[in-house]
Write a structure and sequence with these properties.
One of its GO terms (molecular function) is oxidoreductase activity. 25% of the residues lie in helices and 26% in strands. With 445 residues, it is α+β, with helices and mostly antiparallel strands. Helix 1 runs parallel beside helix 9. The protein is globular and about 70 Å long. The chain binds flavin-adenine dinucleotide. Flavin-adenine dinucleotide binds next to helix 1, helix 6 and helix 9.
């Protein structure tokens, strides 16, 4: 019997495996997808287009129901490394207001106590060390530095966006992925775990998709199959196969932005500035510039929290679906309204002429309009599920998972990933995912 099996080799699975490796534990990582190299997609000109799910053969939707939230738009990158090889490296801590709703013990572990650095500070230090000692908020381009100064002059608490990236020259960069440090022999590819079953003799059996081979048995399991995948595996373990659909909550981020095509030049490396957190829209404001044809594209976007009282519902039964009830849709509209107010104020302070429409406008539609009217800002929306920030469902100290990240119903089974987040706030999830991976392993017996 294996000592520890980690299911999934994405951001959470490889961060957990890194900790297990450091502690000298016996473990293997089971990954549904193949090994396709460990380079971040932005590191190579030939693979940068994979950021677009439509062009990525590894893209595997969570659900395939067109026209529904989280329909074919959002999903895994089913390969070793998962989405850790696609993320943009934006590393924000969850803001205090949201963290206040976390279990006190976990909050203390993240923030530290009595001068002891917490897991956030330790994770940031590790990311800084990985990037060669550069601060996460170090300006990476001259434009970035100039934008931060300009926005600070307009009253925004602006800093270069904290990112765990290394610049590689010629506009290329890579974001941190824990997969790069893992020994290959620890990762078994093509192993999709379809179910986890308790063994009468102790430990667990992992049922593999290909079915025919013998099940793998392990004493400890860490579920790292992404938020939706973890919910499905936990549901199967706790409720068995023949069951009524069960409900889990899920939250994501909602974004609304403004595009302007400008004259001028920009280097090949994009520039990104974090212009602070806006309380009314519960959003972070990020302003970016990148080369666009013979000019520059400015994208000022607000990314905010899907309010917990307006969470989506994951229904797990024979087939998984994700539903947004009408009150949730109304609450999301309210967030979008506030985000538009934030962008209106941004346009006012920066002296931009902006076209605001209340109805939903996709990024591509807004870009076409912005290209047709250079100098005018055009607003766009990102639908729920589009941002790959799905979280919650199995929150720490919730119905299924205890405060240490272990399944209440199944001793020896731990969970890692954004699914553990009790209150997401506006921050991108991965800094918290990396910090919580350490937390969960620290609490394993
Ligand atoms: C283009 C892009 C940009 C992003 N930018 C940022 C950013 O700047 N900042 C930020 O914080 N976040 C960002 N994210 C989000 C971040 O990447 C995700 O939140 C994070 O990767 C989720 O980690 P995870 O381990 O839960 O899932 P994943 O990284 O998706 O890993 C899940 C892994 O499990 C495997 N798997 C699933 N089911 C099974 C099974 N049953 N058996 C075996 N294996 C299985 C999958 O194949 C996959 O490899 C971005 C995402 C994308 C796509």
């Amino acid at each position: 019997m294996l000592d520890t099996a980690v299911i999934g080799s994405g951001m959470a699975g490889t961060a957990v495996a890194t900790e297990l490796e450091r502690l000298g534990r016996e473990y293997i990582v089971l990954e549904a997808g193949p090994h396709q190299g460990r380079a971040h997609i932005a590191a190579d000109e030939g693979s940068a287009h994979l950021a677009d799910p439509a062009q990525d053969p590894a893209f595997t939707p969570f659900l395939a129901q067109p026209g529904t939230p989280y329909g074919p738009l959002s999903g895994y990158r089913r390969r070793v490394g998962g989405r850790s090889l696609y993320w943009r490296g934006i590393c924000l801590r969850i803001e205090d207001d949201a963290l206040r709703e976390w279990p006190a013990e976990v909050r203390r572990a993240l923030l530290g106590t009595d001068g002891e650095p917490g897991l956030y500070a330790r994770t940031e230090a590790a990311l800084r060390a990985w990037s060669g000692g550069t601060r996460l908020t170090q300006a990476r381009t001259e434009t970035e530095e100039a934008m931060a100064k300009e926005l600070a002059g307009l009253g925004y608490p602006a800093v270069p966006t904290p990112r765990a990236i290394r610049t590689l020259g010629q506009g290329r960069w890579e974001a941190y992925s824990p997969v790069t440090g893992l020994p290959s022999e620890r990762i078994r590819t093509g192993h999709r775990v379809s179910a986890v079953r308790k063994r009468a003799e102790g430990g667990y059996s992992l049922i593999l998709d290909d079915g025919d081979g013998p099940a793998l048995d392990a004493r400890h399991i860490v579920l790292c199959a992404g938020t939706v995948g973890n919910i499905e595996l936990v549901d199967g373990l706790v409720h068995g196969q023949h069951r009524e659909p069960r409900r889990y909550s899920l939250v994501d981020h909602v974004a609304c932005g403004m595009l302007v095509v400008e004259d001028g030049r920009h280097g090949a490396m994009e520039s990104s500035v974090h212009a602070g957190f806006d309380a009314p829209s519960r959003s972070n404001l990020i302003v970016e510039r990148q080369r666009h044809g013979s000019g520059v594209l400015m994208d000022a976007w607000a990314m905010g929290e899907q309010p917990p009282e307006a969470a989506s519902t994951v229904l797990v039964g024979d087939r998984t679906s994700i539903v947004l009830e009408p009150p949730a849709l109304a609450a999301l509209d309210e967030v979008r309204r506030e985000q538009r107010n934030l962008l209106r104020e941004f346009a006012r302070r920066t002296g931009l002429k902006a076209r605001f429409r209340e109805e939903y406008v996709s990024f591509d539609e807004a870009l076409a309009q912005a290209e047709a009217q250079p100098g005018t800002a055009v607003v766009y929306d990102a639908t729920i599920g589009e941002l790959d920030h799905e979280s919650g469902g199995l929150p720490l100290d919730g119905e299924h998972v205890d405060v240490a990240g272990h399944l209440r119903e199944a001793p020896g089974v731990a969970v890692a990933g954004p699914c553990l987040i009790p209150r997401a706030g506006a921050a991108n999830p991965s800094l918290t995912t990396l910090a919580l991976a350490r937390y969960v392993v620290q609490h394993m017996s």
